[in-house]
Amino acid sequence: MLPFAGIPSFARSPLESLDSDWQADVGILGVPFDIALGYRPGARFAPRAIREASLRFSLPPDGFYDLRDRRVRLKGLELRDVGDVDVPSLEPQLARQRIEAAARQLRSKARLPIFLGGDHSISHPVLRGFDDKENLHIVQIDAHLDFSNERDGTRYSNSSAFRRAAEDLPNLKHITTLGLRGFRFDREAVAAALARGHSLVPIWEMDDLDRTIERLPEGKDVYLSFDVDALDPSVCPATSSPEVGGLSYDQAMRLIRGTCERNTLVGFDFVEMTPHLDSSGNSALLAARLIMETIMAVFP
Ligand code: MN
Ligand code: MN
Distance from the CA of 121 to the center of ligand 1, in angstroms? Predict the structure, then answer.
């Protein structure tokens, strides 16, 4: 079926309920929550925009033929779409509880759970659903650190997701953050992240990407959190808080592939895309392709 026809589930995968009994390789869950943004709203529309764009990459049972290594990829992959968390926007604590519960359920069913944000604050409740994963490592690809104790009177904004996760999860061992380049850094957050031994990799230390990949964890259970503002705004303009001088698509994919090849990916979130800020729809298409390629990196 052509991409403009039919009802959009992610890559035209079968729909499942989190309450029914099934197992799959990959599960897709939308988390349309964006009231924790510090600037332009609209990331709540990203799960739907990504699903619609993903129809261009719908997964046939026979898989894709990949020119890079001239073989068929993802043949027989069991991909399921479980729809969205029902998020009560004006009850953020209840929203976080529902997100955590859904993340826990999806983990029990899918070998690779994928979470479509939403703003970056969703990573905190999603990660709480990984509280039983021993020695959990995070690879965060982001222009910003998101390790602030508070911002403008709230402790649960998209600037604090990993600070709250680090407080709540004794099993969270380490965070590697790549692509940092925000203009106004929270000095206390940088000090707190370094005090915990986190690896902070600013964009100006990433000219040699092979050496950057060597700074990624190795042999660990890794949760990958991809904030689209890590990409250059010329590549992906659809984000709340763009920062100039970012990654190309190819650089981002090399970092993601490096993360997946060196480690076991146990979860993946894709956040901070604000689709209506790119009326061409290209940012959503990029998102769908990046997610498909990440799946290919985990299921080679
Ligand atoms: Mn972020
Ligand atoms: Mn960011």
Answer: 8
